[in-house]
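TEACHING EXERCISE
Course module: macromolecular assemblies
Task: Read the component lines below, then compare them to the predicted structure of the full complex.
Student: A.B.
Group: 4
Components provided:
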Amino acid sequence: GQQVMQIPQYQHVQEGEDFTTYCNSSTTLSNIQWYKQRPGGHPVFLIQLVKSGEVKKQKRLTFQFGEAKKNSSLHITATQTTDVGTYFCAGGNTNAGKSTFGDGTTLTVKP
Amino acid sequence: DTGVSQDPRHKITKRGQNVTFRCDPISEHNRLYWYRQTLGQGPEFLTYFQNEAQLEKSRLLSDRFSAERPKGSFSTLEIQRTEQGDSAMYLCASSLLGGGYEQYFGPGTRLTVT
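Instructor-supplied answer key:
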């Protein structure tokens, strides 16, 4: 079945440093979603990407969908303490209503 | 603004007992998903409904798990003869068919099997 892998598993940064997490799928995706889960919270939707090579920005966050639609990345510029949490990607297939989640990258930010 | 709600938020049960969880999705959402999440893992898909029809169920899910969405609104997830390995956070999410792929999650029900 479809597998979605994320690296790194953990990332510790100093406040102000940049952060990137990578997501790779074993199969071609129709779409990818990104979610953020704060400690003790539930996943909160951030963005979805559907087009090959698509790039979307949300303030300091930049999301990219690979040309082959099998990988994606999330980049945060100048991290802040409010960015702490676990970032999940979830890959979707047009023929299936479900999405397959990666195991996330947990970001900690040292002030 | 009424988001996705789940009840109960916490459940402690003894091994072998049956438990039932409820999920109320965002009112206009016609898709509803159940996931299980353990520490350090991403949400693991269990099943999903489109309106009242259960369209897919994970092959990893044993016959002890069953879910219903009788009127296409709220849903229940029942686990029979609970085992310690069932201890996890059970998350419900909803989405709108044709509204994009984003899912809106509830706060989850944390199950502890002793």
